[in-house]
Give the backbone structure.
Amino acid sequence: MDTTRSEFNIMDSTQTDFSGTLMVEDEHELESGERVMTLNMGPQHPSTHGVMRVLLKLDGETVLECDPMIGYLHRGTEKLSETKRYAQIVPWTDRLDYTAAPQNNLGYVLAVEKLLGLEAPERAQYWRVIMAELSRIASHLVWLGTHALDIGALSMSLYTFREREMIMDIFETFCGARLTTNMMEIGGFSRGLPDTLVEQIRNFLRVFPNRMKEYTDLLSANPIWLARTKGVGIISPEAAISYSLTGACLRGSGINYDVRKAEPYLVYDRLDFEVPLGQFGDVFDRYLVRVEELRQAHKIVTQALDYIEHHDSPMMAYESAYVMPPHMGTLTTAEDMQRHFVWVIKGFNAPVGEVYHAIEHGKGEFGIHLVSDGGSMPYRMRIRTPDFVNLAVLPHMAQGAMLADMVALIGTIDIVLGSVDR
Amino acid sequence: MIDGENQLTEQRAMEPAGTGWERDLWFDDDLSKHPVIRELRLAFPDDLLDAVRFRNETTIYVTPARLRDIAMYMRDHAQLQVNFLSDLTAVDMLTLRTSPRFDVTVQLYSIPNRTRLRMKASINDGQSVPSLVPVFNGANWMERECFDMFGIFFEGHPNLRRILLQDDWDEGHPLRKDYPTRGWKEFPVYNKERTVKRTKTRWTGRGV
């Protein structure tokens, strides 16, 4: 089955142009006698949430075809991670989905721990759950604010970013950074936590339900919001599975697949929460699913915090040979300093093998596929980001939609271009 | 019915003595009881080449030419119901073995059975694999990315062109192992002729 390059003319860069990629020709005469109009949306359009270009073919205001063009933010994270040791890659994962950096860290760290066959202590796992769920809230709040802003409800973003600020402050107390947190470590958490942290999270949990009510009061019964979202961008359950959608895009169509329930990681099997499902698979159902996920995340954080307050145990799996030992005398004795230096410079050699670990990111299934050849750096690291896969459904949704609904359709997928382009 | 993978075989804490790609060390004797492997051995006796188990994950190696048929068979099978394409990518095995060069890796998932499965097809440079787009629509962008990054052709793909890199990217395919991290092209050297003359300064130690 040898195929030469000449059989695939479309790959030849000289023959590929943007108008040739879509099926509808510019000169195509419509039945009404009108001409097809080609419109570029982006790459700087505010509703694309970054730099994404969508090429639209229009018949009047109806979208005949659309072609999303991505890659403006491609930084080659997968290639770079082949030249970095395992612990060095954690900061790179922050830059993928920068609205939920702790979840990216978590997905990567769990994949490495699966490869190494080590497990973080229980208390560290509960802290990971708390941080992951808080970042899910933060990610959904950014989505809610900007999605409503795109559709025309300006004031939503003022409310949601107010609560996101509280979560950013919690992250800052926890690890010192707000956006690119670099929070998770392989094996647990090696640093102590500030005393004020639990009280700060409790304070957030106290005010958040009332703030949630403000959002839903503004939107859920708002006639303009309903008119713009109900019956728009319908994805059937079959199409949702076929397009490999995950997260709220899949559950909005009524498919019950949540990685936290399907293959529980961390301590999610001990926590009590529910997975909301949509009914019609339109923009409004996905909105309802995400809003309910906010409530469930609040519930999870509350349970995990109760555990944290009543249990005290170590936070780092120091008994494993893959975890950097505590730097006891690094600054005082030469031997400890040398040992620390060698650890930092050489890292550890991972066992030969390959693993795929998926977590339920705020946007869907975030998977890391690691191939190890026994060295200190991954032989190959594949990052399966949810929004890259989810964005592929946009041409399907946009077919026959109105031009004004395009912003709603892009917003409902919940993309972050850093995560799409990697 | 599939009862979850972990009941079939226990996870073996296997760490091969030597480095390198010694897959045989991980081979589990009970793997023939795995439902997917059992069914595929009946339906495609010549095309299931190998099966590997590591960290509770199953990997099957199939003939590249039958990749689509096997995926279609598993999707439509009444019991297997491997109906969800989780991920599609490739691994360049250049430094680990001589031939074949690439492993096209497909991560599959069964939503009803809650089972993961990794399917691999090994091909050489210049060979092609059948596209999975007729089976899963989601394979469209993943295969485009795979072509973009590795230069692997997917036969029957409706629109196989670059996705993350620009359309006229002429430096090859970056995730191949022989592609330098900084790219093939030389870096431009700026400021060859100094427009501002560099003057020697003397450190006086007096803050002047």
Observations:
- Residues 1-20 of chain A have pLDDT under 50 and may be disordered.
- The CA atoms of residues 19 and 25 of chain A lie 7 Å apart.
- Chain A has two domains: 5-69, 77-421.
